[in-house]
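The protein record minuted underneath.
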Amino acid sequence: MKGILYIVSTPIGNLEDITLRALKILKEVDVIAAEDTRHSLKLLNHYGISKPLISYWGEKEKVKSEEIIERMETGQSVALISDAGTPGISDPGAVLIRRAIEEGFLVVSVPGASAITAALSIAGLPTEEFTFIGFLSAKRSQRQKVLKDLAFEKRTIVFYEAPHRILETLYDMKEIFEERKAALVKEISKIHEEVLRGTISEILSILEKTTIAGEYVIVLEGRMEEKKPTTDALSEVSVLMKKGLGRKEAVKKVANAYGLSKKELYDKSLAGE
């Protein structure tokens, strides 16, 4: 019987942010594949879990993935974990997951803490739709290109950023997105968790005066629909009425097209005569 690959989410900060199911799986599997075994041992020791560990960090990922696949061929079950959050999501692990799928192994998600959803839940920005970008390029030209491509994105946008690049990234965002609203979430679920909300400029003015350390999530407001000027709408109402449409019907058509209040447009059309 083939082994199973469990994709286990681990805490992004507070060690208590782990599910009972995740702990059960970690205790039951034959081996744990960890991004960095030294880091993961803190979590495993905290919960008294002792299992053989395989590190798949960085350049080792492709080679170690084959070793893990061989173990699973013999029937061993494997729990894949990253340093924090969910493997494969802006973290190593995607190579092994793809290989396991290609070889026909059962791949099971054991969900848990997520920096993306945690930041979105406290940002105070629209969450009906969002797009996740992850880490931007360290090269300014490439970073700016991606940001410019996102300039017309209407959905809320979520980024990860390292402390040594956070100011540079926010300066670029200010230049491209101007005064959009944003939330900067630092060290989610950790002792020094902090959320800065406001325009990009307002967040920068605070950040420039504080100690920069830890991991950051940037939640950025999407592009807002630009409403056409009311004067243009009034002109169209007038044109429709000259064509024989009643004021009420003309206002309704134009207000719907322009995203304006029907009552407000109706009152202004009366006042303009």
About this structure: The two ends are 83 Å apart (CA to CA). Residues 31 and 52 are 5 Å apart (CA to CA). The chain has a mean pLDDT of 92.
